[in-house]
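Moderator note: this is an archived Q&A kept for reference. The question asked for a predicted structure of one protein chain; the sequence and the answer are reproduced below.
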Amino acid sequence: MAVFTPLTEAQVRDFLLRYEIGDLVTLEEVASGTENSTFFVTTDQQQLVLTLFEQGEQEELPFFVDLLDFLAGHSLPVPGPIHDKTGVALQSLAGKPALLFPRLPGRHPHDPTLSQCAAIGQTLGQLHTVSRHFTGSRPNPRDLRWISANHTKVLSYLNADDQALMRDELDAFEATFGTDTALPQGALHGDLFRDNALFDGDRLGGLIDFYNGCTGDLIFDLAIVVNDWCTRENGAIDHERYASVLGAYLAERPFTDRERALWPMMLRMTALRYWLSRLLVVYVDPPAHTLTPKDPAQYRAIVKARRDLELPALPA
């Protein structure tokens, strides 16, 4: 269960008085997520999502509010936070920082169609285009510096082959990205897996969970999407899905020559980023609750496939 701070109807009813969004009808705990307490709130006017922030760098929450306000203001399908009667979005409830959002329609796509892949590519391209004008800043918390600083924590849990794989990949990344890469920058979602998108059929209902959002290399964000949305069980690229995502993205934002040159290595680096983060959760810093950690072996296979198999180029 992903509700770590239970709320009563009376607490939420009083909380809603800060807004002009109607009276409480139902309150439902959401049994998903890994870090925060989430509730579905229905009033006599609309359906909402209430999030209590349990951990993480809470002083950075204003950045996420500003980013979501900016993207929603540019008509991106994101849940712009609801502001209270005085214009404030970030609140406190039960001693925890709290945000209230509109509830977006749809379900997470388990086996995405080509139309869904095209929709996610188009929307990410639009997001990256407008986000280059976003003035907020938050350094990427899971970039190469993080990989370099944390990979030694898991090496003792790996066999010799996997230790060599991780070290060799890190050496390749540091040789490639160790100096200024001159890649286009902007605001990133930072974790746009399938379970952070909602679809009603092939229609994109919205992108959610921006709490890995940051500013950095735009193709870092795109590589995360490709590694999740366009990958077969053995780690190889699904070329039809790849073409759908990249073709739709390209229609919104062209790639630079530097992005084309560094794309294969970015796919490899973002794959290692998730292999490492999953290993850390399993062996070093397990969650303080009963949620099952995701299997690191999935991203180990993707790391090997990105290294050993020929990767498709960015489309022209």
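Archived answer notes: The chain has a mean pLDDT of 94.
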